[in-house]
Write a structure and sequence with these properties.
binds 3,4-dihydroxybenzoic acid, about 240 residues, seven-stranded mixed beta sheet, binds magnesium ion, binds S-adenosyl-L-homocysteine, 8 helices, about 40% helix, alpha/beta
């Protein structure tokens, strides 16, 4: 088999991104990416092609409401919004925002609000809730909210807990994408002491054992190195428990 190296992945990623996603001056996506450096935020947003991939998945699943766990500067949020046709999509009759995105850090939330506003996305269209995601998710459950598409991308240590709560916010057919579940293949090491790796391993065991989803993992290479997305589709719902 022909092996490639990281330089080839990056070159190809750059090539495909400029082919498929030509950037324009004052593009809100580029501005959001640039905001990471400007505000000294970690450069861990999804790559442009990964973002466009999420957007097409949102469209393919005909999702109307999207939940994101881990906003950072809102770069992935912009792509999820694009898949929903936001801004511009008619507001749901319920008056609920099409996107809810959860972020722990007020500083990140502040930058994300700016990036969403630059793209013309209002707080009515995309609601940003600040605080520990477990608490925000519990709150959403207590409000009886539900979502068609979920992107899990916050602290890897809590992915298994997020998964349980997200199920309570799902309908049959809800698609759950979870980022960074390969981690350069480190997740194959059962003796790993890396808490992110251990968190992902716990999450993978959980989705494997769950009677409520059908799942797979797609490995990825590119400008973010070797990683992968888990995809889970909800097939049956857990009975409603009181939280
Ligand atoms: N989805 C973003 C990247 C998210 S990075 C993108 O691709 O553009 C992970 C984010 O999760 C960080 O902003 C971090 O502050 C946030 N986070 C970490 N722990 C969290 C928690 N317990 N609750 C909510 N958000 C958390
Ligand atoms: C990390 C987190 C991410 O969400 C990501 O896409 C890449 C790296 C990290 O915490 O290392
Ligand atoms: Mg990620």
């Amino acid at each position: 088999m022909l092996a490639t190296d990281a330089a080839t992945w990056i070159k190809t990623d750059t090539h495909l991104a400029s082919l498929l996603l030509p950037s324009t001056p004052s593009d809100p996506f580029d501005a959001a990416l640039a905001s990471h450096a400007r505000f000294n935020l970690p450069e861990i947003a999804v790559s442009p092609l990964q973002g466009a991939f999420l957007s097409t998945l949102v469209r393919a699943t005909r999702a109307r409401r999207v939940l994101e766990v881990g906003t950072l500067a809102g770069y992935s949020t912009l792509w999820l919004a694009k898949g929903l046709g936001v801004p511009g999509a008619p507001a749901a009759a319920t008056g609920l925002p099409a996107i809810v995105t959860l972020e722990l850090e007020e500083k990140h939330a502040h930058v994300a609000r700016e990036n969403l506003a630059r793209a013309g996305i209002s707080g009515q269209e995309a609601e940003l809730r600040v605080g520990p995601a477990v608490e925000s998710l519990r709150q959403l459950v207590s409000e009886g909210q539900s979502f068609d598409f979920v992107f899990i991308d916050a602290d890897k240590q809590s992915y298994a807990d997020y998964f349980d709560l997200v199920l309570q916010l799902s309908r049959v057919g809800t698609t759950i994408i979870s980022d960074n579940v390969v981690r350069q293949g480190k997740i194959t090491d059962p003796t790993s002491k890396d808490e992110k790796v251990v968190g992902v391993q716990r999450f993978l065991k959980k989705i494997q054992a769950s009677p409520f989803v059908e799942s797979s993992v797609l490995q990825t290479v590119g400008c973010k190195g070797h990683d992968g997305f888990a995809i889970s589709v909800v097939t049956t719902l857990p009975s409603k428990s009181r939280l």
